[in-house]
Amino acid sequence: MKLKRRLSLQQKILVMVIGASIIIYAIAIGYISTKARNTALNQAISLTDNIAEKYASDIKFLLEEDLVSVRTLSYTLLTYKTMPEKQWKELFAKMYKNIISENPQILSIWDSWELSNLDPTYKKDYGRYVCEFWRAGGKIQQNISLRGTNGETADYNRIKRDKVECIENPYIYSYSGDDKDKQLMTSVIVPLLENEKYIGVIGYDIALNRYHPIINQIKPFEGSYAFLISNDLQYVAHPSIEKIGTSSTADYETLFSKNSVVDKILNGEETSFIDKDINGVNSYFTLKPIIIGKTVRPWSLVIVVPKSIILADANRSFIISIIVGILGLLLLSSIIYLSSKKFIITPLQRITETLKRLALGYIGKEMVLNIKQDDEIGQMATALNTSIDGLAQKNDFAYKIGQGDLNADINLLSEEDLLGKSLLHMRESLKASKEEENNRKIEDEMRQWINAGLAKFSDILRQNNDKLDILAAEIIKNLVHYLNANQGGLFIYNDDDTENVFFELLSAYAFNRHKFIKKQILVGEGLVGTCAMEKQTVYLTEIPENYIQITSGLGEARPRCLLIVPLLIEEKVLGIIELASFNEIQQYQIDFVEKVAQSIASTLISVRTNIRTTGLLAKTQQQAEEMASQEEEMRQNMEELQATQEEAARKTNEMQSYIDALNNSTYVTEYDTNGYIIAINNAYLDLLGMTREETIGTHHSFKLELSSEKQREYDKFWSDLRNGLIRREVNTITVSNKKVVLQETYSPIKNETGQVTKVLKIATNLNDTNSN
After folding, report:
1. In this predicted model, what pLDDT tens digit does every residue of 327-379 receive, in sequence order?
2. What single-letter DSSP state applies at residue 410?
3. From CA 681, how far away is CA 663, in angstroms rounded?
4. Which residues contact 157 (CB under 8 A, 6 or more apart)?
5. Which of 694, 698, 692, 652 is nearest to 675 (CA)?
6. Handedness of CA 343, 344, 349, 355 (dihedral sign)
7. Percentages helix, strand, coil for the chain, rounded to the nearest 5?
8. Which of the listed residues 597, 617, 637 is the one where a domain comes to its end?
9. Is 724 left (phi over 0), alpha (psi -120 to 50) or beta?
10. For residues 146 and 108, what is the distance between their CA atoms, to the nearest angstrom?
11. Looking at the domain assignment, is residue 309 inside a domain?
């Protein structure tokens, strides 16, 4: 079984203080270390970027120096027209030889002149005159030749097309033809333009080995290195000589792709990032573009600095900080241990022993502590001594209360002495408990009285729910007796005559006998009427003068209280209970009467419904007898009606036969009052050779051949029809290139008000009559 070790207070203080110190120290060291590392990294990056910028400018200066020399030479060559051809060729050749002699970095100088520019009779757009000087075997050699007469190379065509300065991508070449003389070089080229027309080109071939010493000098930090790459990603210069002239993608293809380096180099943009170099070392890379003149093939200088070298000083400072912190923590622990034992642990141990005895329930004067410290520990001891004295007093007080002395008293230590207040509250609670017990008995008696009364009246309402007067008499008699009242009355809402609505006194009871009196009260009249209107219980202990008198054998007297309760159901007042008594009616009795009133109201609804149902049943029986006598008369009427319907059906069939005959023998069409077809029979459709969809909606004048005279009569024709006149016409229509003569009768059709709503046309074919 694994036991959990308990720490002492001193150990806990040490753990908390040292733990907090360690946490704070760790956070501070972590922050400072991180800040130092970031500062060192940022400073190294800034230094590396500045160095890269400087060396990129130096390399650019060297390249631009050659470019400016070529550009200046190109301006000189454009003076060729001022002298004979033989003269300028000899002059320019001599100038080339002097330049290459005085500039050892220039491997070759050459020009090309378009033959079409030198010889107006030369009609081809290719072919050139070339003069070149180069070094070979320690001597300067010269060659003059014609080239491209059968077509130019792609590189020359590109230079001729672009007509801009350019620095060619590095290439390896030997002027002697011996592989031992091969070296890495590039060409700096400037086109010769005359009025924007390309006439030739001048260029230097420059050795690139002079950049290797420059690259070796670039070491901003121990372990850092640099290299120079051309626009086609070749190593122009590199600390490793064997890599010069090779492609950098062989070493950095993945890294270049990951960080979009290729696009940056091609576009002449600078960039920087942190990634693993060719040796797998996490390093900082910075690329600075080298853009020469107006050329479009920028080179880039790359410097690589291992990140671990940059952060070496920061890591060393971090380790020193940790060692100093550990020594400081040990010293702090010793000081805390000694001071806490003397001023905290020993006094607290004595206080703890006393508290343990208090926890076991013991209280005695010998438990008082003698600790003389003017600090929190001393205040704690004083407070504990005060608590011991107070607990001793409370112990005596509780003992007296236990003996039944509810008048015992105790002095509170302060306003915050909750235990003392609780003991005093306990004393008061014990005093009040006796009173509460008595009140509880009274409430139980009231509750039993109410439940017994509700059960009693529930039985009364259930036994007498068929006769309203007997029910009212039983209710008021038992209510007066149960409340020990002296007089009571039950008013019922009477709305048999909707013009005369009132509350009728259905039953009254006083001094053990029913009062057979008649009394009617309107809504809002007197106390009873007011109670009905406001739908609220009225309880009065001051009875109005001459309102009611209670009569006995000893005389008459005004009651002490009056209770008026509405019989409510769904906010509708069905009646009023009025009770008068010499004795004051208690609130629980009023509540009882209100509950009984709800039950009485529900029962009154049922009784009145039963009475009305009985009356309706008798009336229904009478109506049934009357309906039986009428049934025979209705049967006779039905027989006559059936005969009439049979005659109507016969006439309907006869009329349908007439209509069918008319449709089969004539052409029938219906028009609206504007002359548009709204209906047409099949015979007319067959004659016209059209469908119903084609004809419905067409005008009366469709396919009619009208002379100018008939056209004038046409408007009068339709005006007569709309005025209710029958018109007969003979018209000719053309159907399938045949003329058909129709005898037509137009009859206006009127509605029940005599207004013409449509026109019926019946037509016969006179062609058929003539043929017969």
Report:
1. 877 787 777 777 766 667 777 777 777 777 777 777 766 677 777 767 777 77
2. -
3. 7
4. none
5. 698
6. positive
7. 50, 25, 25
8. 617
9. left
10. 18
11. no
Sort strands 555-557 and 561-569 into parallel, antiparallel or unpaired: unpaired
Task: Among 391, 420, 451, give the residue marking a domain's end.
Answer: 451
| Average of per-residue pLDDT across 78-105 | 90
Q: Both 468 and 589 in a single domain? A: yes
Name the β-bridge partners of 490.
507, 577
Task: Give the residue carrying structure tokens 């050329």.
Answer: 295
Are 443 and 497 contained in the same domain?
no
pLDDT of residue 111: 94
Q: State the SS3 of 517-576.
A: CCCEECCCCHHHHHHHHHCCCEEECCCCCCCCCEEECCEEECCCEEEEEEEEECCEEEEE
Supply the CATH number for residue 484's domain: 3.30.450.40
**What is the C-alpha to C-alpha distance for residues 578 and 571, in angstroms, rounded to an integer?**
19
Distance CA 26, CA 268 (A): 46
For the chain, what is the domain count?
Answer: 4
Residue 64 belongs to a domain: no
The pairing of strands 128-136 and 106-114 is antiparallel
Structural tokens at position 119: 């010889």
Q: Is residue 651 part of a domain?
A: no
Q: Are 159 and 83 in a shared domain?
A: yes
Token pair recorded at residue 18: 């040292």
For residue 92, the domain's CATH number is 3.30.450.20
Residue 521 amino acid letter: I
Q: What is the pLDDT of residue 658?
A: 73
Q: Which residues contact 106 (CB under 8 A, 6 or more apart)?
A: 66, 99, 100, 204, 205, 206
Integer Cα distance of 20 and 28 in angstroms: 12
Two structure tokens written together for 460: 């009364």
Range of the domain at 678: 666-771
Please give the sequence-ordered ranges of beta strands (E in DSSP) within 677-737, or none if there are none: 677-680, 727-735
Q: Are 599 and 566 part of one and the same domain?
A: yes
CA-based radius of gyration for the chain: 65
The 8-class DSSP code of residue 181 comes to G
Other beta carbons within 10 Å of 440? 10
| pTM greater than 0.85 (yes/no) | no
CA distance 256 to 712: 99
425 and 446 in one domain? yes
599 domain residue, yes or no? yes
pLDDT tops 60 at residue 542: yes
Q: Model confidence over 294-319: pLDDT tens digits?
A: 888 899 999 999 988 877 766 776 77
Asked if 513 and 413 sit in the same domain, the reply is no
Residue type, 744: E
Single-letter code of the amino acid located at 379: Q
Q: Which secondary-structure segment (H or E) carries 578?
A: strand 572-581
Q: Which two tokens stand for residue 42?
A: 């940022």
Please work out, in degrees rounded to the nearest 5, the angle formed at the alpha carbon of residue 737 by the alpha carbons of 736 and 738: 90
Q: What is the Cα–Cα distance from 200 to 217, expressed in whole angstroms?
A: 39
In terms of domains, do 418 and 525 share one?
no
**482 and 593 both lie in a single domain:** yes
Q: Determine the pLDDT at residue 518.
A: 55
